[in-house]
Each structure stands twice: as structure tokens, then as C-alpha cells.
Amino acid sequence: MRDKLIHDYIQVDLTVVWTTISNDVTPLLIELETIYEILTSEE
């Protein structure tokens, strides 16, 4: 998706971008927070 956004932004379907943000970013953040907690608790 990054390549499409950067190089072909005129044809980007904003609905697809918004759906990706809405559905994928929150679970990713949760996973990243979990990983961060695991890594910082081992110090």
C-alpha cells in the first residue's frame, strides 16, 4: 500500500485507506504495546 500511496496517490481509493486504518492499526498498536511491555520488563 505504501508504494501506491507514494507513487500513485491520484488513484488511491480513500475508502480502502480508511478501512485499513480503522481495522488494522488498532490491533497492530495493541500487539506493539504487548511486545514493548515484554521487552522492557526483561531489563
Automatic annotation (TrEMBL):
Keywords for this protein: Hydrolase, Nuclease, Toxin-antitoxin system
Q: Which Pfam families match?
A: HepT-like
Taxonomically, which superkingdom? Answer: Bacteria
| InterPro entries given in the database record | HepT-like
The name under which this protein is listed is: DUF86 domain-containing protein
- The organism named in the record is Spirosoma utsteinense
